[in-house]
Amino acid sequence: MKLIYQQMLSFLALIIVALTVVSLLFIQTTASSAWDNNFRQLAGFTNSIEQHAVLNDGTVNAPFLDNSQQILASQQISFGIYNAKNQMGYPQQKQQGIDKKSWRKLKTGEDVSYRGWVEVPSRNGKAELKQASIYYRPVFYSGKLVYVIGAFAPVKTIQASLAKTQRNVFIGFVISAIAALILSYFLAQVQVRKINRLRNATHEVAQGNYDVDLKSSGNDEIGELTTDFGEMTDALKAGREEIKRQEDRRRQFMADAAHEMRTPLTTINGLLEGLAYDAIPEDMRAKSIELMRNETGRLIRLVNENLDYEKIRSNQIILHRTTFNGSEDLHNIVSQLTQKSTDAGDVIKLDTPDDLSVYADHDRFVQVIFNIVQNAIQFTQNGTITITARRGYHQSEFSVSDTGIGMTADQVKNIWERYYKADPSRKNTKYGESGLGMAIVHQLMQVHGGKIDVESKQDVGTTFRLSFPDEDAAPSKQDVAKRQAKSESDHASDKA
């Protein structure tokens, strides 16, 4: 059975039950009220007769009773008076007395009222057996039962009135049931329409369409379900986009890795073939072997840097952060790179206090600064590289500026990408040939909870600014993971 019919039957059943209960209670109350009014009316008649029609000596005022009979005849009400021997005293006619059960109650002074078959006095002098409502009132003088006044009203009048009431209630019940059926249909339509919207949206999602926009309608359970469904589709859409982004990254990684490895492998293969077929002169063999060793080392560095990058990106590395004097490491880095800068015609200037407190993983800190300074040397010829360090507010701050070739806005945007090279012509140089240095630097700064910014202008130079937070200001691992996820999401959006 379809849901709309189930809903209709549910609504209709509830309304029918309610109407039935109300109708029965109304009929019962109306009938009870009608009979109570009837008995009160008969009690009033007997009370009036007691006061005006019976004399103190027990005799009756016949003219008053005859006039009263004529008046009440139009209402089909009659009455009679029974003496202490349970014999009819008025009107004078043969009639059975009051039943024994009722007579016993009357003798105790209790009024008796009920519905039943009884011989009702009539004007023609002959009693008639009728179904009537009966009321008896006993009258006592000096503690003795003198007579009993009985009033009789046929039940057919009240029954006719009650039958009319029941008929009207039944008509109202039928009309209400029809209206309830129509109302149930529309109420069921409203509920089913909401569910059908969810059903159609679910079908769209099952077909792979996550661009389903469902607006919550109301604060009921279906409205809350609609809201939850919308959140689910948003999560599925984000998951699909993340999967697509990761797949694109995987493909790009495979392409970039293959491209980066092809050159050294081709070089090594060519030299090996030359050696195998004695195509390389004897005096060149040592140089060829040295070249193969260099290319093999390049491949090893490329693999290690890829592994290092993935560990850092997936937050699998463990940082051993301590507080140390960063000025000493800056001097050591300058000493190590002095020869490279001299070969490039560059001058390195260092501006740092003697004691500079830094809270970081010492080896990773050195790796970050070394890579940035080496990158500056790589893209600067006959220029100046300036390293500046100072204490900031709850952090240590560094900047590395060069007067090299600089970068365009697009190059700055992509500088943190793996295998990206601002100057592709330098891809095979001995300074950072893999294109992974800046990507690793960026990831290391994120896991430290630090910041790194770059400003560059083409043919003018580039400046990197870094900050390492102190121990009391360092973010938690959860905050670092959230920051990494947001950074990757923002970067993916920028590329898109």
Automatic annotation (TrEMBL):
Transmembrane as UniProt keyword: yes
Entry's transmembrane regions: 169-188
InterPro entries according to UniProt: HAMP_dom, HATPase_C_sf, HATPase_dom, His_kinase_dom, HisK_dim/P_dom, HisK_dim/P_sf, Sig_transdc_His_kin-like_C
GO molecular function, one term: kinase activity
Reaction catalysed by this enzyme: ATP + protein L-histidine = ADP + protein N-phospho-L-histidine
SUPFAM superfamilies: ATPase domain of HSP90 chaperone/DNA topoisomerase II/histidine kinase (SSF55874), HAMP domain-like (SSF158472), Homodimeric domain of signal transducing histidine kinase (SSF47384)
Annotated keywords: Kinase, Membrane, Phosphoprotein, Transferase, Transmembrane, Transmembrane helix, Two-component regulatory system
Major site of localization recorded for this protein: membrane
Enzyme class: transferase
Domain Histidine kinase: residue ranges: 256-472
EC number: 2.7.13.3
UniProt name for this protein: histidine kinase
Organism whose genome encodes this protein: Lacticaseibacillus pabuli
